[in-house]
Amino acid sequence: MHRRLLAPLLFLLLATMAPTAVAGELTPSESAALRQDVQGMLAAFARGDAELIIARTHPSLKRLAGGDEVYARSTRDTVKALHEAGVTIISDEAGVPTRTYAAGDEEVCFVPRYSLLRVRESPIRSTSFMVAVRRVGAAQWSYLDGAGLLDNPELLWQLLPALEPGVTLPKGGVETL
Q1: What is the pTM of this model?
Q2: Which residues, 6+ apart, have CB-to-CB distance to 108 below 8 Å?
Q3: What is the Rg, in whole angstroms, of the alpha carbon atoms belonging to the chain?
Q4: How far apart are CA 32 and CA 28, in angstroms?
């Protein structure tokens, strides 16, 4: 009798656990929507709109920065300083998102970013990526700018400790033209 009760109880326990992410592929429509969403973030940055960036940044970076208010102030100050320094975005394009990677109850993918900037009179080409993160089953993504991870890839696991091991970050770099 105990055995017959154990199986349904075990099933109920497993069914109520939070879903965990598995590595996989985005559907074509998910990929297109994500790319469009990232393009909107890039356009906001080019306009100097720090508010959208602040709203859509993954909470792990806000915590690392010292909380929501500290992160928001820092982001506003950075966007303003870039504008005052004469940094102009000539073009900023989102590429095709990668496959997804498991990160506990979240999933992660990388969206390439191809930028052409002008700093004072010097054109600069930058290749980087955005880290897109969402809860399993959710539609909305939050983001981390991958530029800061190029020289410090271990930071990604500090921000997302449940990210599966062995994930290779996309390549990036900066070139003065």
Answers
A1: 0.84
A2: 21, 100, 101, 102, 131, 132, 133, 160, 163, 167
A3: 19
A4: 6
